[in-house]
């Protein structure tokens, strides 16, 4: 059994012409760091898949600064306009290719984070606050997932 953690980036600067260049605000950095502390205590991811957008990269860096990763990849399929089926298929392929990685952290954006949860665990499409993480249990042999919960920076205990 594997764990998939799907995380929305922390709070970012307002919309601008170059959406990919938006950066985290100070609050966004704090959200990502807080969730990183929670991750280190409760889940300890060993694999990371992250959007190429700056705010997602910054979130991943803040959230994993105290975590040792075996696998780390930037993925163009998990941008805000990514296709959830493609992203889910790619994630499942990576999980199969890296059997030693048991806990996968995916850092991306709305709306794909919600759609990705639904793609993996149909009928569950949570709305993510900034910095929030959905926890999914994944049976790689049956290729079936079970949505467990969602956690936000303002409601986690460290």
From TrEMBL:
GO terms for cellular component: cytoplasm. The gene is sixA. It comes from Pseudoalteromonas lipolytica. PANTHER family: PHOSPHOGLYCERATE MUTASE-RELATED (PTHR20935). SMART domains: PGAM. This is Histidine phosphatase. The keyword Hydrolase applies. Keywords: Hydrolase. GO terms for molecular function: protein histidine phosphatase activity. SUPFAM superfamilies: Phosphoglycerate mutase-like. The keyword Hydrolase applies. InterPro entries: His_Pase_superF_clade-1, His_PPase_superfam, Mito_Ser/Thr_phosphatase, SixA.
